[in-house]
Write a structure and sequence with these properties.
Layout: H1 2-35, E1 53-55, E2 72-81, E3 87-94, E4 99-100, E5 112-114, E6 125-127, E7 131-143, E8 156-157, E9 160-165
Antiparallel strand pairs: 1-2, 2-7, 3-6, 3-9, 4-8, 5-7
């Protein structure tokens, strides 16, 4: 019977020792997890935004309204975004004299202006990545009374500069 007690006591001691050792290792691991530090370095490079362009309209790109002396009309822009991410058109400003199309060479005084400086645009206009979109600026072209009769039926070219942001 003593032999059984000795084995039973030994089993209890072994179990206690195994439990204490497990607890000690677990506490050490927890301490290491919370007490360790590390360092390192990283780098990133900013890419350059490619130029977003405004192209002349092509057949089928027609504004919904037309200009008359003393009136306003929509301006339609064909905007191309060659970037691999979408961009937002922030503002549009005039960038040079307005000219009539080549079919109206006698239209030398157009009387046409880009009404104000439509920017910042609200709501902003988004151009998807690697795409072309038509952008309509409602009532952005104005024609005053100095426009010549030879300008009737003209399509006007309004040079503009776009400010775009990622």
């Amino acid at each position: 019977m003593k032999a059984n007690r000795w084995r039973s006591g030994r089993s209890v001691k072994a179990a206690f020792l195994a439990g204490a050792l497990t607890l000690a290792l677990g506490a050490g691991t927890a301490y290491a997890y919370w007490a360790t530090t590390g360092s390192g370095s990283g780098s990133a490079a900013a890419g350059d935004m490619q130029t977003v362009t405004v192209d002349a309209l092509v057949p089928g790109d027609t504004p919904a309204s037309t200009l008359i002396p003393g009136g306003t009309a929509d301006v339609v822009l064909r905007v191309t975004n060659p970037n691999p991410y979408p961009v937002q058109v922030y503002s549009v400003t005039g960038n040079g004299p307005v000219t009539a199309d080549t079919a109206h060479p006698a239209c030398t005084t157009t009387g046409v202006t880009l009404a104000g400086s439509p920017g910042p645009l609200s709501p902003t206009i988004s151009i998807d990545a690697n795409s072309t979109a038509l952008v309509t600026l409602p009532g952005a072209a104005g024609m005053d009374a100095t426009s010549q009769s030879a300008c009737q039926g003209s399509t006007f070219h309004l040079p503009v500069t776009l400010a775009v942001r990622k």
